[in-house]
């Protein structure tokens, strides 16, 4: 499934969204174009359960919402004492009902690898919740970390910046999770055909996968997502 990281960006008006479309209807419009979205703002401030319930009632059957975990868990607690923040996250995200998809744990770039801390955090998630982990420090690229992800059935979130992978291309579970942060094509931060086709080929190794474009500036994300979806389908 292909979508973008968030949907509320003012510079998408007139490019992706019709100029006269009220902002309150943007999610409904977005869901008519894509089948999934990554909720990025949950990282900065976890929405109330009622907000998730409102999104659930707006979205069509089969739509999938990935939720980025709160920075309280990943950046402030740095994965320590995870029980309460994980329970709080899942308690409010449950408002999405069957629209709830993967939970993303994006780790701070200053957090060095800690296999025990990662495993303890992942253990707090029920088995029916898909979890993707996006480390951002090179110390995480070890066999021990890979085994933790495999044991806990968590996906290593593949990441791209500058149209190049910035993570190993480990397949730690049967499903994949890809985040595309910044393309190397013109106009910036768009992705070019070669990069998109390469990522489409790589995702073919999974039973199913989620791909989210985080290059939101100047409306690049929805344009690239539409193009990428075509390559994936072909």
Protein architecture, described:
With 234 residues, the chain is of the alpha/beta class. The protein has one domain: TIM Barrel (Alpha-Beta Barrel), CATH 3.20.20.410. Helix content is 33%, strand content 20%. The chain is built from 8 helices and 10 strands. The protein has a 10-stranded mixed sheet, with helices on one face. Helix 2 links the parallel strand 2 and strand 3. Helix 7 crosses helix 8. The longest helix is centred in the last third of the chain and has 14 residues. The chain is globular. The relative contact order is 0.15.
Global shape: globular
Number of domains: 1
CATH class (first level) name: Alpha Beta
* CATH third-tier fold name: TIM Barrel
Oligomeric state as shown: single chain
- Which blocks of ≥5 consecutive residues have pLDDT under 50? none
Helix content: 25-40%
N-end to C-end Cα span: 14 Å
Strand order of the largest sheet: 6-5-4-3-2-1-10-9-7-8
Residue fraction in strands: 15-25%
The CATH homologous superfamily is termed: Protein of unknown function UPF0759
The profile of the biggest β sheet is: 10 strands, mixed
What key phrases describe this protein's structure?
single chain, 234 residues, alpha/beta, TIM Barrel, ten-stranded mixed beta sheet, 8 helices, 33% helix, 20% strand, globular
């Amino acid at each position: 499934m292909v979508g973008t990281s968030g949907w509320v960006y003012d510079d998408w008006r007139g490019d992706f969204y019709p100029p006269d479309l009220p902002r309150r209807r943007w999610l409904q419009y977005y869901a008519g174009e894509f089948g999934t979205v990554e909720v990025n703002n949950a990282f900065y401030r976890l929405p109330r359960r009622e907000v998730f319930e409102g999104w659930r009632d707006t979205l069509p059957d089969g739509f999938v919402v990935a939720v980025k975990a709160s920075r309280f868990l990943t950046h402030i607690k740095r994965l320590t004492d995870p029980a309460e923040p994980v329970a709080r996250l899942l308690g409010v995200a449950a408002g999405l009902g069957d629209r709830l998809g993967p939970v993303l744990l994006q780790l701070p770039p200053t957090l060095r690898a800690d296999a025990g801390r990662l495993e303890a955090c992942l253990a707090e998630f029920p088995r029916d919740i898909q979890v993707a982990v996006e480390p951002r420090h090179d110390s995480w690229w070890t066999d021990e970390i890979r085994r933790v992800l495999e044991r806990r059935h968590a996906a290593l979130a593949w990441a791209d910046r500058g149209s190049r992978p910035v993570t190993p291309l480990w397949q730690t579970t049967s499903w994949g999770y890809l985040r595309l942060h910044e393309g190397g094509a013109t106009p910036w931060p768009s992705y070019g055909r070669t990069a998109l086709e390469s990522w489409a080929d790589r995702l073919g190794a999974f039973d199913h996968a989620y791909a989210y474009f985080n290059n939101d500036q100047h409306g690049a994300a929805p344009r690239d997502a539409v193009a990428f979806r075509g390559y994936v389908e072909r």
